């Protein structure tokens, strides 16, 4: 199990966790799935374990990811959805053969048609994106307040006032920046 990614199954939104694998999009962007094995790692911690991934499959994953990013960003800003992004998301959604499985203890698992089927995993992510962009799921798409991030995230807080894609990354960084700024102005004691 990889330690490079947090466990996304605990209340995380699959589609926006996936778009978050390219972070700091408006700063020094960091590609968190630069090679096929890293996508395998990410899918594993996301409950979509595959045994292998080819370079071509990784490229398809990037294509889907960027399309979800474009559509989710437009939705968060209440702009019209880019037609090409919608097309890509739909294509990936229909091509997979993943099945939802109910476990004896009442949790949902995804069963892919084969252990090498990255396409099946991508179809689950595409369907998840459709859920949140269409408003089928309870929550609100918003953009991270960090100017170097601006990631689309899905706010399920009661007040719908979440500002950061992740508290332990963007939220803390912003807090620290504000603290340092105040310190320079002499507003915070050492
Ligand atoms: Zn952020």
From TrEMBL:
<feature type="domain" description="Zinc finger CGNR">
    <location>
        <begin position="141"/>
        <end position="181"/>
    </location>
</feature>
<dbReference type="Pfam" id="PF11706">
    <property type="entry name" value="zf-CGNR"/>
</dbReference>
<dbReference type="Pfam" id="PF07336">
    <property type="entry name" value="ABATE"/>
</dbReference>
<dbReference type="InterPro" id="IPR021005">
    <property type="entry name" value="Znf_CGNR"/>
</dbReference>
<protein>
    <submittedName>
        <fullName>CGNR zinc finger domain-containing protein</fullName>
    </submittedName>
</protein>
<dbReference type="InterPro" id="IPR010852">
    <property type="entry name" value="ABATE"/>
</dbReference>
<dbReference type="InterPro" id="IPR023286">
    <property type="entry name" value="ABATE_dom_sf"/>
</dbReference>
